[in-house]
Amino acid sequence: MKVIVLTGPTASGKSALAVKWAREMGCEIISADSRQVYRHMPICTAVPSEEERGGVTHHLLEFLEPADYYSAACFEEDSLRLIADMERRGLDRVIVCGGSMMYIDALTRGLDSLPTISAEVRQETLQFFEQEGIEAVREELRRLDPKYYAEADLRNHRRLIHALEIIRQSGIPVSELRTGAAKERPFEIEKYAIDMAREELFDRINRRVDLMITNGLEEEAQRLLPLRGENALNTVGFKEMFAWFDGLMDRQTAIERIKKNTRVYAKKQLTWLKRDPTLRHLTT
């Protein structure tokens, strides 16, 4: 079995190229996108339409509710199960397409065996953050796991909260649970990333946001407003729309902020991609 990974920054054309390859190879696609797993938000998360899927079977798209929990560890388990099933069905290759780099790493390298967080621990930790603030979370991590604290991105609130969840669930410091060792996989892996000039990429991002607005992003955000506290909606597009609804900025500022924040996200993806020497780069 050959697993062909196609990744790259947001708006770089991954989905269309994956469909082209899949039709040529006669294979299926596994989506590696941490937001496209959720229903009810296809505009903000740029879920490919049925027409854009070109008749190719796609997996792990829109199968969860926004309140449902999902993680890179869940993706690792689900994607390995799907690949094994495809092999049993006689397929000899699959395309894994997406820009969620933690998901790509989870499949190709594996994750350390971290505990599943119970609903009780998740709620208790969230309540601690909401009542005491992020500084209290940082201080708790510094006390319980000084090694992790010294290496962590202290501006990444979600990562810090999750680290605290792991410690509370397991009773073991995160730094002791992490090995960083790659797992062996029972399949061949080829990894490709789309490269393009930054000016072209940013222009594509700006045009995509304009199209999202035309296609009804505002209405989608309004429908999901009651669920704004769910992690699934803590994403570029919804956050700016919600800020506009709250009167914190005007409509045009919100749209421009979506473009800016999407460009920032793309830069982070590009930085991540540069660290992977196994990638084969496709220039456009």
CATH domain class of the largest domain: Alpha Beta
The helix count comes to: 14
CATH fourth-tier homologous superfamily of the largest domain: P-loop containing nucleotide triphosphate hydrolases
- Estimate nothing, just give the exact number of structural domains: 3
Strand content: 5-15%
* Main sheet makeup: 6 strands, parallel
Named at the architecture level, the CATH assignment of the largest domain is 3-Layer(aba) Sandwich
CATH topology of the largest domain: Rossmann fold
User: Helix- and strand-based class?
Assistant: alpha/beta
How many distinct beta strands? 6
Shape: globular
How far the N terminus sits from the C terminus, by CA atoms, comes to 28 Å
Helical content stands at: 40-55%
Q: Overall mean pLDDT score?
A: 94
Uncertain runs with pLDDT below 50, 5 residues or more?
A: none
Radius of gyration: 19 Å
